[in-house]
Automatic annotation (TrEMBL):
Pfam families for the chain: BBE (PF08031), FAD_binding_4 (PF01565)
Protein name per its UniProtKB record: FAD-binding domain-containing protein
Signal peptide residues on this chain, from the entry's feature table: 1-18
One function term, GO molecular function aspect: FAD binding
InterPro entries hit by this protein: BBE, FAD-bd_PCMH, FAD-bd_PCMH-like_sf, FAD-bd_PCMH_sub2, FAD-linked_Oxidoreductases_BP, Oxid_FAD_bind_N
Keyword Oxidoreductase: yes
SUPFAM superfamilies assigned to the protein according to its UniProt record, in alphabetical order: FAD-binding/transporter-associated domain-like
Organism of origin: Macrolepiota fuliginosa MF-IS2
Amino acid sequence: MRFRSLLDLVPFLPAILAQTGNSSKGSTNCRCLYGQSCWPSEQDFSSLSAQLSQPLIRPVPPASACYPVGNPSGNCSDVQQNWSDANWRADQPGAYENINFETYTNRNDSISGCYLNTTLGLPCDQGSVPPIGVDARTVEDVQAAVRFAGQHNLRLVVKNTGHDYLGRSAGRNAFMIWTHHLKNISYDGNFIPEGASNNEVVPALTLGAGVQWREAYAAAAEQQRFITGGISSGMSVGAAGGWVMGGGHSAFSAKYGLGVDNAVQFTIVKADGDHVIANAHNNSDLFWALRGGGAGSWGVVTSVTYKTYDLVPLVMSVINAVMLAYTVETWTAGDSGDIVRQARQRIAQEVRRLDPISPDSATYMNEASLYEPDFRKSFFGSHYDRLRSIKRKYDPGSLFLVAEGVGSEDWDGSLICPV
Ligand SMILES: Cc1cc2nc3c(=O)[nH]c(=O)nc-3n(C[C@H](O)[C@H](O)[C@H](O)COP(=O)(O)OP(=O)(O)OC[C@H]3O[C@@H](n4cnc5c(N)ncnc54)[C@H](O)[C@@H]3O)c2cc1C
C-alpha cells in the first residue's frame, strides 16, 4: 500500500498510535497497551494484586537470562541446556515453543526480540512477550484478571503452554493470564454432568486448564483408565487449553474420536468475570462453541471433564498421515525483517496454491497457518454464523481476541484496533 499524502494516513492513525505507544486515554476504541498513558497505574496493579493468590508475574523472553552479556541477569547455562525442551519452555511464562513468536517485527522491518546467540551483538528486547500478567492458580485469580483486563480495555492474552502454531498465546505489550499452574486433576467413576439425569453417568477425568498430556495420561493410568489426547515427544501440549477448543486430534481418534467428542463439561470464566458451567444442559450454545469453535475466543476455560475408557493394550496398527503439502518457514536469530517478510509471503503463497487442489475442503486450525486466505471458511465453514452470534452473546466487547479466531475479522492484524 502506498500513501499519497499524510491525509491518507488518517484512517490508520489509531493503529499506528496504538503500536507506537502514543495514544492518549480514551482517544480511540483501540486496546490499551503497555507503555501508553492509558495503561493501568502501579496503584491499579497493586489493587489487582491484593485480589490474587500469587504475586503478579513479569514474563521475559527466556534468553534474557543471558543478558547483559558481560554480567548475565539469570542462569544462562540453564537456558542454554534446556532451550529446546518443550516442557521447560511451558514452565516459563515468557517462553514459546516456536521462538519466532517471542519476537516482534516493527514497521521499519527491524525485529524486537531476545536471542540466545549473544555473539550477534543485538540488544535483548521484550518482543511479543507480554510484560505483565497473572499466574492464575484459582478460579478467583482468573476472575480478577479478566475483570481487570475488561475494565482497563487491555489487549488480553491467555497463555497455557505457549505451543500454539499461530502464536495466539503471545501479544506485544499485552496483559497475560497464565493458566499453566491450574493443575488440579480429579477422577470420578460416576461423573454426571451438571443438570443431567442419573443415567448420563460417565467415568470421567476433570483436568484443570494447566494440565498437560503427560500429567493427564499418568492420572488416568493411576485409575486404570485411558484418556484420548495429544501425542508428542514430552507430551507437553495442554490437555485443557487450545488443543480441545481447536478440535483435539489424537493418534487414537480413529477409535475414540477427537477431544471434542470426549469433552462432557467445561468450566469457564466469561468476559463479565462470571464462572459458569458449559455442558449439554447448561450454556449448551457455549458448550457447542468450545468444542471446535477455536481457542481463546470464548473466555478463560478453567477445567475440562473428559470421558475415559478401560485401559486395555492398545494396538495402533496403522496411522496414516497423508500430507498434501507440509510447509515450514522459519527464521533465525539476527535475520532482518525483510527476510522474515519474505518467509511469510512464501507461506501465504504455498497456502494459496493448495486452494485450487481442494476447493471445498477445510483446514485443521490447531496445525494451520497464520496466512489462511479465508479462515472463516477453512476452519469453521457453515458453522461460522452461529459461532459469531454465540461470540456476540458471551463476549460482546471482544475481550477475547486471537488471530484467525471468531470475530477477529473486525480488528486489525495486531488485534489492537477495530477496523
Ligand atoms: C509439539 C506439539 C505437538 C502437538 N501435537 C498435537 C496433537 O497431537 N494434536 C493436535 O490436535 N494438536 C497438536 N498440537 C497443536 C496444539 O493442539 C495447539 O498448538 C494448541 O493450540 C496448543 O494449546 P495450548 O493450550 O497447549 O497452548 P497455548 O499456546 O498456550 O494456547 C493456545 C491457544 O489456546 C488459548 N488458550 C489456552 N488455554 C486457554 C484457556 N484455559 N482458556 C481459553 N483459551 C486458552 C490461547 O489463548 C491460545 O489462543 C501440537 C503442537 C505442538 C507444538
